[in-house]
Amino acid sequence: MLKVIDITKIYQMGDNTVNALAGITLHINTSEFISIMGPSGSGKSTMMNILGCLDQPSAGSYLIDNIDVSGLTSNQLAEVRNKKIGFVFQSFNLLARTNALENVELPMLYQGISAKNRRRRAIEALERVGLSNRLYHHPKELSGGQQQRVAIARALVNNPAVILADEPTGNLDSKSSQEIMAILQELNNEGKTIIIVTHEQDIAQFTKRIVKFIDGRIINDANVLAQKDAKKDLLYTSEVGR
């Protein structure tokens, strides 16, 4: 589904040149659940911005469904974002004076969808994340975990092919974090492609694949399920050998 081919990203900071990404190649298949990890300055956020069509690479190609989006105009990128990508942010990015239902309706305003259909789809999305009894609550009336559920509903409402979540549990307690990751797992089990950026190893373990960045390069790309199966096999072998 997503193909990043030899992507570089260079920023000019005054007299200094910063190589945020240095020749990244990464393929992400349909229905994958992947986490991108790395310390501050590793390039993971730059990678997420490019995957989300919020930024363009300095060189290389980025293909979504075999369409190279790395050279599209700003308007064309906006259309790709609206139709193919749902975003979930650490700070929720909800409008304070707007209730949950209206927040979820926002992405549909740019698609010419009728008010009746916007309302129906927003209600369905909020029901999907367990907030059918919070439709008319404003962000200040919701807990952090509930606000993030609203944000996930908003990301889902246009039925995007990919959900990008940037530190989705960064402002949540451990219980709420687990609940949010359980929702993302369920969505992935239903076929959604989900990519999260996180610095928390325990959160990354909810995903099926972990890609680690350092200094603008991928240093490790591991299948989490395969690692877990290998540990089980090793434990079983050890027990049998006793």
Q: Level of helix content? A: 25-40%
| Main sheet record | 6 strands, mixed
Structural class: alpha/beta
The gyration radius over C-alpha positions equals 19 Å
How big a fraction of the residues is strand?
25-35%
Number of strands: 10
Q: Oligomeric state of the chains?
A: single chain
Order of helices and strands: EEEHEEHEHHHEHEHEEH
Q: Unreliable stretches, pLDDT < 50, 5 or more residues?
A: 234-238
Distance between the termini: 46 Å
Residue-averaged pLDDT, rounded? 90
Strands side by side in the biggest sheet: 6-7-8-3-9-10
Discrete helix count: 8
Shape designation: globular
Describe what this molecule looks like in 3D.
By secondary structure, the chain is α/β, with parallel strands linked by helices. Helix content is 37%, strand content 27%. The chain is built from eight helices and ten strands. The strands form two sheets. The protein has a six-stranded mixed sheet, sandwiched between helices. Strands 2-1-4-5 form a four-stranded antiparallel sheet, with helices on one face. Helix 6 links the parallel strand 7 and strand 8. Helix 4 (115-128) packs across helix 5 (144-156) and helix 5 (144-156) packs parallel to helix 6 (174-189). The longest helix has 17 residues, at 224-240. The protein is globular and about 50 Å long. The N and C termini lie far apart (46 Å). Mean pLDDT is 90; it is low at 234-238.
